[in-house]
Amino acid sequence: AQLFMAGFLPFSAIYIELHYIFASIWGHKIYTLFGILFVAFVMLVIVTSFITIALLYFQLAREDHRWWWTALYNGGATGLFVFAYSFYYFFHRSNMSGYLQLSFYFGYMAIVSYAFFMMLGFVGFYSAFTFVNYIYGAVKTD
To answer: Following DSSP, what letter does each residue of 1-25 receive, concatenated?
Structure first.
């Protein structure tokens, strides 16, 4: 449930732009809204950071100190949603058929989804690391 929420909320911030990007890459359409794409990317990074910090706060409130990998997974969960959306796009929005197009499409989408997972996982981990250092740096030990 935690990974679903961590991936769904940032994905919902970018899925409209993701459709246009898929249409321009796989559907031979021209993409011209690069300013809106930049705003969507900034929004994706901010939402991923905030969701990861919120889920980390709830994890630390449960006194679960093993936050390192969960912060990476929570941040990168959007990459799984991007890969799931690639299935929807392939079967319902594109006109691709055949084994070669299938393997080419899903091979590249697996690489792109892994890149999203690693990029947003780093954003989630770094924001969680900064948050933990801030909250435990304020604790005074006498």
So the answer is: -HHHHHHHHHHHHHHHHHHHHHHHH
